[in-house]
Structure formats: structure tokens, C-alpha cells
Amino acid sequence: MRKVVDAATRTYHWLFAASFVGAYISADSEKFRLLHVTLGYTMIGLLAFRLLWGIFGPRHMRLSGMFRKLQGFRTLVEALRSGQWMQTTQLKQSANLMMTSIIVLLLLSVIPLTLSGYAVYNELAGGWLEDVHEFFGEFMLFLVLTHLVMIALVSLLRRSNLARSMITGYVAGPGPDLIKSDYRVVTATLLLGVTAWMTWYIFFNE
């Protein structure tokens, strides 16, 4: 077993996932409208954390590494032209590229989703923004489901349970650990920050 994902990254991931699922489920409920709004704002806060983590965090979470992976589209196009895209190595690279692309789209989609939600909640524009907000909500759901499919596909190609690494931080197999620290202070700060924010907004914000 080797460690590949730190606790701070895993905590961010599950907070982001829970915020989206909770916001999506509560979207059509007037009773839970405040919860829906709070979770939406929480997502934009988590996006800010991810950007900072991608700049100042560990090397394996750097945004620069993510952008380098996206440059693989050129290799994919060349493989498609040459008919070599069905090779196992190329399939793995293509699946990894698609996984990274979906993650980037998920992060980018939070911005119009939250901005349109803010405008709708504060009645800053007409009803057309409700359609925009709903569109990005459904688009993010599509991306999330595609993300899950890609996790299953990459797990099959690598013959390793990729989802388990985001739960335990470890993957099976030999090799050195990719991370040296769990960043427990960052993890605790993130958890306390999200908890304090949601408690304040739901119960004390007037």
C-alpha cells in the first residue's frame, strides 16, 4: 500500500460532493431554501480553497500539474488520426485526460451556478436566470455522473480501486508514498471553517 491522497484533499473532496448533492436535492423545496443557498455558497468557498490549495498546497494538487495533463489533448488527437487510440497505454492516457477535463469543468461550473443562484435568490433579474441556474445545476449533475463512470473505467484500466484512495488515501501496490503529510492543521481548519460558516448563515444570519 502507498499513500497518494492527503487528508485535507479528501476532506475538501467530500465536502464539495456533499454540498452539491445537498444543494441539488433541496433545489425545489421552499422549506429548505435557506439550506440550498447555504450549500451553494459553501461550494464557492470550497472552490476558493481548491484554487489556493492548487497554488500553495502539495505538488500533487497543483493546478499547474492539472493544466499540463490537459495538454495531452494534442497526443489524443494524433492517436485518433493514426488509429492507435485503442492501444492499452493510449486508452489509459485518454481516460486520465477525460477525468482531468471533467474535474476542471466541475470547478468552472461552480462560478456561473453560484452567481446565477445569488441573482435568483436576491431577485436581481428576471425569471430567465432561474433557467440559467437550473441549466448549470443539471450540467453539474451530468458531470458528476460522468465523473463516477470515469472513476470506474480508470479503475478497470489500472486494475486498482481509484475510489478507495479518496476514502483511505491509499492505493494497493508497491512504490513510494506520493505525499509526506496529511496536513491535519489544514484539514481541521477547513472542517471548522465550513461548520462555522454554515451554522452562522443558517441560524444567526438575519
Number of DSSP helical runs? 8
- Total beta strands: 2
Largest sheet, order of strands side by side?
1-2
Shape descriptor: globular
Radius of gyration: 19 Å
Following the backbone from N to C, one meets helices and strands in this order, namely EHHHHHHHEH
**Which regions have little confidence, pLDDT < 50, spanning 5+ residues?**
none
Number of domains: 1
Give the termini separation: 50 Å
Largest sheet: 2 strands, antiparallel
State the secondary-structure class: mainly alpha
What does this structure look like?
With 206 residues, this protein is an all-alpha fold. It has one domain (2-204). Helices cover 75% and strands 2% of the residues. It has eight helices and two strands. Strands 1-2 form a two-stranded antiparallel ribbon. α1 packs antiparallel against α2 (33-56) and α2 packs across α5 (88-121). The chain is globular. The N and C termini lie far apart (50 Å).
